[in-house]
């Protein structure tokens, strides 16, 4: 399908899942706004490289997703958007009684509240243009739970609830709102963790991936950023016009257990 003439904002998109989704949207013809909290030369170079690769307009805009005003300003500085992908996220692992308050606040702000602010800023423009797609990157942890991840699981469950609520508010308009729920995804960050995990358990790469990292993922295979990007492109298509207020799991069967 073609997304030519559309503009997409992807938060937290200078690496990992966000960057993979941005590439697939650009490959489909959409102009793209990349985002993170840094403002380095390499961030802007990344946008220039993507523009050359896909022949679309790509900008990088710095915005700290822990700051409500910056979340909303991102949409304004981009000139609005037809496609909004809320991907920015962080993680912290600790027992609930020892979970640092500042870490709880940061995870909720970046993983949940930022999506509220960008959606609130973007939806009026989508309504005015008569077309819009909001795609929230949730997680298998938006549908199930794991111990020691209180803030992350709470935020991702919140993202799923926010998705359903805004979908109901826009249900009579050509604006859809959905969540993608990945399981374990092979990103550079995950790839970098494999050698340490191998050393910790005294296992080879394939064994540590299958028996340790992907223990909860029945397919015993990582999802890829390209697969998540392809799912996002599908949700932007005419074929998905009546898909709204729901979650799509890309988790190798994790949430089927």
UniProtKB/TrEMBL annotation:
User: What PROSITE patterns has UniProt attached to this entry?
Assistant: ADH_SHORT (PS00061)
Q: What Gene3D superfamilies would the database entry show? A: NAD(P)-binding Rossmann-like Domain
A Pfam short name: adh_short_C2
**Gene Ontology annotations of biological process type:** monocarboxylic acid metabolic process
Instruction: Output the InterPro entries linked to this UniProt entry.
Output: 3-OHbutyrate_DH, NAD(P)-bd_dom_sf, Sc_DH/Rdtase_CS, SDR, SDR_fam
| Record-level Gene Ontology MF annotations | 3-hydroxybutyrate dehydrogenase activity
Q: Which family does it belong to?
A: Belongs to the short-chain dehydrogenases/reductases (SDR) family.
Q: What is this protein called?
A: 3-hydroxybutyrate dehydrogenase
């Amino acid at each position: 399908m073609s997304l030519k003439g559309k503009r997409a904002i992807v938060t937290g998109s200078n690496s990992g899942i966000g960057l993979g989704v941005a590439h697939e949207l650009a490959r489909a013809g959409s102009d793209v706004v990349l985002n993170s909290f840094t403002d380095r030369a390499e961030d802007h170079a990344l946008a220039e490289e993507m523009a050359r690769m896909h022949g679309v307009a790509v900008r990088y805009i710095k915005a700290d997703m822990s700051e409500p005003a910056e979340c909303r300003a991102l949409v304004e500085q981009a000139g609005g958007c037809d496609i909004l992908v809320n991907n920015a996220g962080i993680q912290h692992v600790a027992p609930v009684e020892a979970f640092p308050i500042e870490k709880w606040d940061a995870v909720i702000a970046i993983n949940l509240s930022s999506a509220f602010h960008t959606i609130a800023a973007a939806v009026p423009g989508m309504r005015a243009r008569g077309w819009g797609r909001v795609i929230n990157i949730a997680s298998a942890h938006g549908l199930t739970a794991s111990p020691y991840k209180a803030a992350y699981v709470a935020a991702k469950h919140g993202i799923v609830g926010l998705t359903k609520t805004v979908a109901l508010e826009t249900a009579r308009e050509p604006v859809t709102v959905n969540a993608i729920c990945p399981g374990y995804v092979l990103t550079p960050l995950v790839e970098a963790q494999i050698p340490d995990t191998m050393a910790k358990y005294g296992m080879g790469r394939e064994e540590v991936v299958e028996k340790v990292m992907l223990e909860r993922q029945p397919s015993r295979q990582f999802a890829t950023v390209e697969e998540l990007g392809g799912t996002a492109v599908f949700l932007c298509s005419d074929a998905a016009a009546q898909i709204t207020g729901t979650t799509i799991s890309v988790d190798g069967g994790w949430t089927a257990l």
